[in-house]
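Please, structure for the following, as tokens.
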Amino acid sequence: MEDYRRQGGIQQLLVAEQEARHIVNTARTAKLNRLKQAKDEAEEEVAKYRAHMEKEYQKTISESTGFSGVNVKRLDEETVKKTDHLKKQAAKVSPEVIKLLMTQVTTVKV
């Protein structure tokens, strides 16, 4: 009877070990699944953040390189002002330049 009890005790230990192994494997599988899910969520969040930052970067680049309408308008106004200024300066010195040219052309050196 003693052997029977030992056999029963050993059998119970084997069953308990098998159940424990099953519980550990289930927990390990659940942990791996949760880690994979967390990784996927993190990658998705990183992709969204990267897309947001890229959009902000492109917006900043377009504003600073003159592709925006405000910069184009400002540059056009500056160009018009500078050309008007140059035309006024040319008009001021034009009579003097014509006089100098006429003097040089009509003077004959012997």
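The first helix runs from residue 2 to 64. The CA atoms of residues 93 and 99 lie 10 Å apart.
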